[in-house]
Amino acid sequence: MSYYTNVKWSLSERPFLAIIRPDSLALSRVNITFVSPAFEVARARENIKHAGLLEPVGIVEWEEHLSPYDTVAKLLASTTSSPATVYLDTTLRFFIASALTNILAPLDIATSVSDPEIVTLRSIKSSAEIDIMRCANMATVEALRAVKSLVKPGATEDQIAAWTFRALEAAGLRKTWVLALVDDNAAYPHGEPGKNKKVGEDGGMTRLEPGMTFSVEPGVYVMGEFGIRLEDIVVVTSDGEGFGAARDFCVGEQEAERGEAGECDVNEKFGTI
């Protein structure tokens, strides 16, 4: 709902719904009707006001002792010619979708998951939407760069999260969410409950020195399907220069068959690659 109307509403057991229909007088416009719990109407009006909607907007209330689905059915029955189809947004919760389907069926009004054309409105971004996303991404990058200079041995995860939150706000971003994880705590996707590790704790930070070598092993693992991991051995140098081009070796042959050095002409074996 928030994508199509810009109205924000937290999930509740009491349905707050938006019904969007084509304007009968102008095909390029729509009519929007919100179905709201009666005791939440004041908050609904305030949220709708801040949404900045340009389209005609209506609000229909449903009382606590009545059914919100009856309210929707009466509204559609009085404004829709049957047979008709109501397309449900793919994010609509099942108990609401099921109740609407059952109550609208006797009115010859079918329900269906949003068709591809409606889904496309959300999945394919306009140039304006992409510009907004790009702006948010650039602001995030600048905020992280600012926080990076503050992170020193002894800094806790909570401190890093607080610095990042303030940096994001300073960059103009609101309603952000920050999770900072250090060392082995980062092995858990959302951290291990109850931990607030420090940078450098338990030997977590080691200064790299020229001559040190270690492996870089990015991997992708899909249980029951496949797994792949690259194991690249790297060396730390004082000037950033490596050892030059890697030497080519044949694949799948025994060392003895490749000669003392194990080298071979890759192009001869496999063609130019």
Provide a concise account of the structure shown:
InterPro entries: Creatin/AminoP/Spt16_N, Creatinase/aminopeptidase-like, Pept_M24, Peptidase_M24B. By secondary structure, the protein is α/β, with parallel strands linked by helices. 32% of the residues lie in helices and 17% in strands.
Principal-axes geometry comes out as: elongated
Structural class: alpha/beta
Q: Strand order within the widest sheet?
A: 1-2-3
- Give the ordered list of helices and strands: HEEHEHEHEHHHEEEEH
Number of strands: 9
Q: How far is it from the N-terminal to the C-terminal residue, by CA?
A: 52 Å
CATH class of the largest domain, please? Alpha Beta
Largest sheet: 3 strands, mixed
Beta percentage is 15-25%
The CATH architecture term of the largest domain is Alpha-Beta Complex
CATH fold type of the largest domain = Creatine Amidinohydrolase
How many structural domains can be distinguished in the coordinates?
2
- What is the mean pLDDT? 80
Pfam families: Peptidase_M24
Protein name: Peptidase M24 domain-containing protein
InterPro entries: Creatin/AminoP/Spt16_N, Creatinase/aminopeptidase-like, Pept_M24, Peptidase_M24B
Domain Peptidase M24: 132-197, 205-237
